[in-house]
Amino acid sequence: METAIRRDMILDVEVVDLLNHQITMEQQASSKYLAMASWCDQRELRNSASYFYKQAEEEREHMMKIFKFVNDNGGSAMSPVATEVAHEFESLRAIFEASLDAEIEVTKSIHHVFKTARKVGDFTSEIFLQWFVTEQAEEEEKVRDILDLIGLMEDMPLKMIDERIPTE
Ligand SMILES: [Fe+2]
Ligand SMILES: [Fe+2]
């Protein structure tokens, strides 16, 4: 694109492709969390539902953060299309396990973009991505804590477990 309003791109092309892939991943994560929120909401697991609604919002914020970063630095952010997500889950524990798996995938992907940015000398992206590296470590830690908690309360009624789930 060679319009006058277009700024010179200071980001690396390969990194921009990976960032666009990341945009799709964050959108997909948001959709997954919304489906999880729905499952919990339908069973009146209020805290868990709040937790997943909040996660769905946060993932959308992550998506927008990357989206704006790409456009603000002269790249072309691509509007993401989320594909089909699971709506059926075996249990509350299964949902949090699926959530941990998804977070681990996102962490791997963030690390990959980070490494690429460093390798090609795209310092703007590298610095931008530092926030995401920290965020992913915190996200994983949070889900692991919840899974520990669920493990300890395994024999308790679901509603009582739900009461101890943090709402965000
Ligand atoms: Fe995220
Ligand atoms: Fe996340």
CATH architecture: Up-down Bundle
CATH class: Mainly Alpha
Number of strands: 0
Mean of all residue-level pLDDT scores: 95
Number of domains: 1
Instruction: Summarize the biggest pleated sheet.
Output: none
- Low-confidence parts, pLDDT < 50 over ≥5 residues? none
Keywords: Cytoplasm, Iron, Iron storage, Metal-binding, Oxidoreductase
Domain Ferritin-like diiron: 9-154
Binding site for Fe cation: 26, 59, 62, 103, 136
Pfam family, one: Ferritin
Topology:
Blueprint: H1 13-42, H2 46-72, H3 92-120, H4 123-152, H5 158-163
Helix pairs in contact: 1-2, 1-3, 3-4
Keywords: Cytoplasm, Iron, Iron storage, Metal-binding, Oxidoreductase
Organism: Tenacibaculum gallaicum
Family: Belongs to the ferritin family. Prokaryotic subfamily.
Question: Care to describe what's here?
Answer:
- The chain contains five helices and no strands.
- Helix 1 (13-42) runs antiparallel to helix 2 (46-72).
- Helix content is 73%, strand content 0%.
- With 168 residues, it is an all-alpha fold.
- It has a single domain, classed as Ferritin, core subunit, four-helix bundle (Ferritin, Up-down Bundle), CATH 1.20.1260.10.
- The protein has helices at 13-42, 46-72, 92-120, 123-152, 158-163.
- The mean pLDDT is 95.
- It binds fe (ii) ion (2 copies).
- One fe (ii) ion binds next to helix 3.
- It holds the Pfam family Ferritin.
- This is Ferritin.
- GO terms for molecular function: ferric iron binding; ferrous iron binding; oxidoreductase activity.
- Its main location: cytoplasm.
